[in-house]
Amino acid sequence: MELDEKVLSFIIGTHNGTFHCDEALAVYLLRLTKAYAGAGLKRTRDPATLDTCTIVVDVGGVYDEGKQRFDHHQRGFTEIFGNGFTTKLSSAGLVYKHFGQEIIANTISTTPEDPKVNTLWLKLYKEFIEAIDAIDNGISQYSADIASKYRIRTDVSARVGFLNPAWNESFDSQTVDGLFSKASALVGDEFVGRLKYYANAWLPARDLVAAGLKARTNVDPSGKIILFEQFAPWKEHLFELETDLSIAASEQPIYVLYPDETGGQWRIQAVPASPESFESRKALPEVWRGLRDEDLSKASGVDGCVFVHASGFIGGNKTKEGALKLAKLALTM
User: Fold this and answer.
1) Residue 278, φ and ψ in degrees, nearest 5
2) Per-residue pLDDT for the chain (333 aa), expressed as one digit of tens each?
3) Are 196 and 266 members of one domain?
4) Do 244 and 96 belong together in one domain?
5) Same domain as 121, residue 33
6) Which of 48, 123, 153, 189 is the most exposed place for a label (fewest CB within 10 A)?
7) Cβ of 277: how many Cβ atoms within 10 Å?
8) Are 229 and 196 members of one domain?
9) C-alpha 37 chain-centroid distance
10) Region for residue 299 given its phi and psi (left: phi exceeds 0; alpha: psi -120 to 50; beta: otherwise)
């Protein structure tokens, strides 16, 4: 709906009683928008009171963006985030779907049209919001025939839940409303921290990997070696960019070179077969594995060698030139 700019005080409505992570985050997210920054909060299930609120989340049995009503409990509700995601939304996901791009743009001081806003919007849903949606809607992470080997009760949804009063503690509205504010700050601060990490560290690393991928034939004509002049987390970005750019398997890089973060040396790392795999596309040669220092230099014919891991997934050399020689040799072995 078109919000009346003459309204002096906007009110966010949500249910009272036991609170959950989804509405705690939804309320926090709304207060990151220009319209609802500084908005008041009413926690109630009374329909007449909710009707006085400017926006209502997680209660009321209505999902209607035009009316600013964002509940997900009603019969027939099937809304999903889209963009490849199929998990049914909670109030957190609904608010994030409709307001997330504005929230991201406001937080990182850019415009919603900035391409990186959409990238971050999708990333934050995948890594932070979707699990909250699934947990609130009772959607298991695994099929029922797979028994979990341990319990996870330290996720943010569980931590918010534990802020509710215990069954034998005071449950008066003033106490619970105060704890709700604490819960909303807990999950909201975590969201903002994650957003800032992705904006200030994850995205720049993606740019670095994209540049290295584009320039790899300048490192070796085969295009099988990527060289980074500074260390950055690269695995996740590499696999995503290979998919985005439709790089054929025959043209994908085999080794990645980068400076060690602390030792002043260089690393050569074999690209894994898949993001979570311990297998490599092409491990470093077996005859080098487990060797160190002079023994490795003699076996490889490359000066300045430091080590090659026993599995062949990573090795080291004292110089960039030495690491590059190892990589080029390994391609031929």
Assistant:
1) -90, -5
2) 444 443 448 999 999 999 999 999 999 999 999 999 999 999 999 999 999 999 999 999 999 999 999 999 999 999 999 999 999 999 999 999 999 999 999 999 999 999 999 999 999 999 999 999 999 999 998 888 888 889 899 999 999 999 999 999 999 999 999 999 999 999 999 999 999 999 999 999 999 999 999 999 999 999 999 999 999 999 999 999 999 999 999 999 999 999 998 878 999 999 999 988 999 999 999 999 999 999 999 999 999 999 999 999 999 999 999 999 999 999 999
3) no
4) no
5) yes
6) 48
7) 10
8) no
9) 25
10) alpha
In a domain, 153, yes or no: no
Tokens coding 304: 């300045």
Give the chain's domain count: 2
Examine residue 2 and state whether it is found in any structural domain, yes or no. no
What amino acid is encoded at 51 in this protein?
D
Could you give the CA distance from residue 191 to residue 127 in angstroms, rounded to a whole number? 10
Smallest Cα–Cα separation from 236: which of 263, 219, 256? 256
Of 150, 231, 191, the residue nearest 21 (C-alpha): 191
- Residue 289 is which amino acid? R
What is the pLDDT at residue 332? 97
Specify which residues 292 forms β-bridges with. Answer: 307
Contacts of residue 258, defined as CB under 8 A and 6 or more positions apart, other chains included, come to: 227, 228, 230, 231, 232, 234, 266, 267, 269
Is residue 328 one of the residues assigned to a domain?
yes
CA dist 58 and 15 (Å) reads 7
Q: How much is the pLDDT for 2?
A: 46
- Please, what is the Cα angle at 48 between 12 and 15, to 5 degrees? 45
Contact 191, 128 (CB under 8 A): yes
**315 and 241 in one domain?**
yes
Residue ranges making up the domain that contains 228: 220-332
Query: Are both 112 and 240 inside the same structural domain?
Result: no
Q: Are residues 246 and 290 in the same domain?
A: yes
Question: Residues 235, 280: one domain?
Answer: yes
291 neighbors 279 (Cβ within 8 angstroms): no
